[in-house]
Amino acid sequence: MIPILENTLAARSLTFGYANARVKAMKKGLLQEKEFKAMIEARNVQEVYSILEKTDYRQDLVSSALKENTLADQIELATTKNFSRTLKKIVKMSPEKFREKIAQLFEKYDINNIKTILTSKHLGQPKEKIDQFIIDPTAMKSTTLNKCLAAKSMEEAVRALDSTKYGELLEKNYKQYQKDKQITGLLAPLDNRYYKELPQIAKNSFGDERFIVTMFKAQTDAKNISNICRSIKSGIGEEERRTLIANEGNIKKEHLEKAIKAKTVEEVEKICKAEINLGKAIEEYKKTGSLIPLEIELEKNIAKKGLHVLRSSILSIGTIVGFLILKEIEIDNIRKIIRAKEFNLPKEELQEMIIEAY
Questions:
Q1: Rounded CA gap, 275 and 217, in Å?
Q2: Quick check: pTM over 0.85?
Q3: Comparing C-alpha atoms, which of 139, 87, 90, 89 is closest to residue 114?
Q4: Are 298 and 329 spatial neighbours (Cβ–Cβ below 8 Å)?
Q5: How many CA atoms lie within 13 A of 220 on its CB side?
Q6: In terms of Cα–Cα distance, which of 321, 295, 298 is closest to 310?
Q7: pLDDT per position in the chain (358 positions), as tens?
Q8: How many CA atoms lie within 13 A of 232 on its CB side?
Q9: Long-range contacts made by residues 193-198, C-beta under 8 angstroms, separation at least 24?
Q10: Are 245 and 260 in contact (CB under 8 A)?
Q11: If DSSP codes are grouped into helix, strand and coil, which group holds residue 162?
């Protein structure tokens, strides 16, 4: 189709009408405020499980009911399966010419798979312990991922990924890993490459890429600030911090560079204040020394961007991407709830951790 014609409403309807209608129907299946309130009020993990049994998570809970797993682990496994199933369904229902693009936009799950597998090899964990938490690949071939998963050693796992777009990057960093055995230096560049490529991947003839890119840049900023602040608290040096940073967010590069060199978390907040307001969260950090309020505030910023994309994009790829971001947030909320119930966290503290995206 000629690009200029693709921008007409009629052309948009033909291209995205079916997919957008299906996504809007699926949005009705997202958990609402009443379900989250009920889970927060639940006395234990069993009650949370009972609430989720009455939702779209039921079939995933049934397939995750393994005796060797705790109830909390079964729920977490079910959320992984649910998202994997949802993502696969979204890609399949999308216009054929956009399927590859959508798969690429969510290629971070392929990267997460790689990171999970390589970390398990680094720790000497068996395949059986992690394969249940692997999401079906979006852009990567299943055979390649399975070969990596079945590898007997770190070197064999890295070699299994030679045919992927990350093969050369992993090969280059594996040499350094052999010297220092630092898994972070091997894995961090994978995220950096993904975020660097996002603006080009998101580009499309409907002109809504700016909404999509803004949302993903918010994710990049959240990842960067969190990594820098955690590095400061852990005493990680400037050079190692730099390997954890992706320079493709909304935060100016000169501000990011200053943040990398910062001595305290409070200093990071001041440097990035123009792009992200974390004032309330930083005050809480000063009282408790916990980064959780700061990271929750960053997650809320992403949620706002996701809702904006979903509401602003009509008959376009943005509607699809916005829905998947909201699905991610929903699953993160469920995982926070079950872990909070496991450790008997007060309801008031749990409520503060929940990201409202419904």
A1: 11
A2: no
A3: 139
A4: no
A5: 26
A6: 321
A7: 344 444 555 556 666 777 778 888 888 889 999 999 999 999 999 999 999 999 999 999 987 666 667 899 899 989 988 998 898 888 888 888 778 878 888 888 899 999 999 999 999 988 887 877 788 888 888 899 999 999 999 999 999 999 998 999 999 899 889 998 888 888 888 888 888 887 777 765 555 566 677 777 888 888 899 999 999 998 988 888 888 887 778 888 899 999 999 999 999 999 998 888 888 889 988 988 989 888 888 888 877 776 766 666 665 677 787 888 889 889 999 999 999 999 999 998 899 888 887 6
A8: 19
A9: 193/166, 193/169, 194/107, 194/108, 194/111, 194/246, 195/219, 195/220, 195/223, 195/246, 195/248, 195/249, 196/246, 196/247, 196/248, 197/104, 198/105, 198/248
A10: yes
A11: coil
Which amino acid makes up residue 247?
Answer: N
Answer left, alpha or beta for residue 144, where phi above 0 means left and psi between -120 and 50 means alpha. alpha
DSSP code at position 134:
P
Q: Are 122 and 87 in contact (CB under 8 A)?
A: no
Here the tokens at position 264 are 């305290």
CA distances from 349 to 202, 239, 297, 304, 343 (A): 37, 35, 14, 21, 12
Residue 183 burial by Cβ neighbours in a 10 Å radius (0-12, 13-18, 19+): middle
DSSP H helical segments within 53-166, as ranges? 58-63, 71-93, 96-105, 108-123, 127-130, 142-150, 154-160
**What is the secondary structure of 208-222 as a DSSP string?**
-HHHHHHHHHHHHHH
- Beta carbons of 282 and 269 less than 8 angstroms apart: yes
**SS3 category, 41:** helix
Alpha carbon separation from 351 to 39, 192, 254, 335, 355 (Å, rounded): 10, 32, 36, 13, 9
Q: How many residues does the chain have?
A: 358
DSSP state of 236: -
Q: How far is CA 225 from the centre of its chain?
A: 15
